[in-house]
Predict the structure.
Amino acid sequence: MELSSVTTPLDVATIEKLRAGDKVLLSGTIYTARDAAHKRFVDTLEAGKELPVDIRGQVIYYCGPSPASPGRVIGAAGPTTSGRMDAFAPRLLSLGLKGMIGKGKRSQAVKDAIVRHKAVYFGATGGAGALLSRAVVSYEIVAYEDLGPEAVARLVVKELPLFVINDVYGNDLYEMGMSKYRR
Amino acid sequence: MRDIHVDEISAVIERLFIDANYDLPEDVVRRFNEALIQEKSPVGKEVLQELLLNAEIAKDERIPICQDTGLAITFLEMGQDAHVVGGTLDDAVSEGVRRAYKKGYLRKSVCDPFTRKNTGDNTPPILHVSVVPGERIRIVVMPKGGGSENYSEVRMLVPSDGVEGVKRFVVEMVGKAGANPCPPITVGVGIGGNFETSALLSKEALMLPFGARNVDPFLKELELSILADINALGIGPEGYGGTVTALDVHIKVQPCHIASLPVAVNIQCHAHRIKEATI
């Protein structure tokens, strides 16, 4: 298990160094978007319009945080299940999205798109929302405020603890891990 | 007959949902520590350590354990000699949920199934009421996230599927869920009754304490054997591979129709948030 510090935006050279199973501390700007925001992204593209954020080189965190209590930047901020975004992810990857953070397995179409477009899928520990919130330095809603917890927000994170799940070489930590411990 | 005012019920519901979301029960923390010893994968151990640290941060800093602060599942045992005054029981529970999710800075995760428009206050709660002897009200709350609930299912098996069919179904469901419901999970299995009863039994099974085994030796053996089969899948903590995929398996059984074998599997994530109080 390699431990590396990675900063956004992501470039191909950085992405090519990452291998499924590596632990990564991610710093820089990332964007939150989950179910309803993804639907709107694709509807916007279908209508021939521009996305509300420039996703080239960026990382999307599948996260709908709980509200911040007074004095905090953000509430609990763990990942949601990524599979529900599978229908939308290949399109975003083809437009230059370089990273996704979530939990749970991706479809073969997403894994293929990760290889084809040289991107990476990170896992954040699901249900560790209190711990993960500590890495969030700032939180600002940038689109779809009406969606409440599902609004698109720009986060600045410092050393967000992640594992590489799907790399550009077609490796999948879930498959590797499971086959090693299956009896 | 004892009068219980709705304000008291709302206040208790409010406190229970906030506490449940901030403060992981002692027995869950204990079970995480045991799992840390049992787990063979180094990555799995690291995840379990993160979960222990997460529970500590949530408790100390009073923030939710997980951002998915769940549907407000409420089991309410109503003493038949208790009398609710000042309003209706349903409204009292909803009001408590409304206040908890606002005052506790909990995420509102309830929406219309089609328009997906958020109801804005995490109501309606999922309320199950049963009538019991006495003049008290016992309330158990279990805020439960969507990720684990999505991997739950009721299947109407046929009697000839038997015990092997039940085992196969439960293990198949856990395998299919993989990393998605945030393992290490707890599995509630409801067997018998009919379609809806089996689902309710599986939810009630989740409310049993860790390590609580059926008194019936056959069911006790079945719980342990399903747990062993699940942990042999290799899914591990967060699905990164490992030997602890489930923390426990609980089974609840009720007689069923001669033509049927209803089985429900309800999966709970590692953040097994549950609190209770008696009024």
In short: Chain A touches chain B through 47 residues (CB under 8 Å). The longest strand of chain A covers residues 152-166. Strands of chain A lie at 3-7, 23-32, 59-61, 99-102, 120-123, 136-143, 152-166. The CA atoms of residues 56 and 146 of chain A lie 25 Å apart.
